[in-house]
Amino acid sequence: MSKIIVSTAGWCEADPEKVRFQLITDMDGQEYITGTEWLKLPEYHDTAISRDDYILECAGTAFATAIDGEYDQVDVEVEE
Quick one: which of 53, 57, 45 has its CA closest to 18? Predict the structure, then answer.
């Protein structure tokens, strides 16, 4: 069966209340937090949990609910 491969390049201004971040370290913190909660965390490690301990849960959600954004390039290919 053929596959459709979509590759993109672009950016978006994510709505902090509509994106979530997932904890990726063994630090003591909530497993999922909103972008608003993530922004309140310190940028780097000191003695407590920081932004570095989380990753964006879903880039698709960030783009779908974006306040602003732009795709610089969108390519669609068929892979046999």
Answer: 57
Q: Tell me, what DSSP letter sits at residue 45?
A: -
Domain that holds residue 32: 3-79
For residue 42, CA distances in Å to 51, 52, 53 come to 6, 9, 10
Residue 52 Cα distances to 7, 33, 39, 80, angstroms: 26, 13, 11, 39
Count up the domains in the chain and report the number: 1
Is 8 in contact with 71 (CB distance < 8 Å)? yes
DSSP 43: S
Instruction: Give first-to-last CA distance, the chain, whole Å.
Output: 7
Provide the whole-model pTM.
0.83
**Encoding tokens for residue 6?**
């979509």
Residue 44 pLDDT level (bands cut at 50, 70, 90): confident
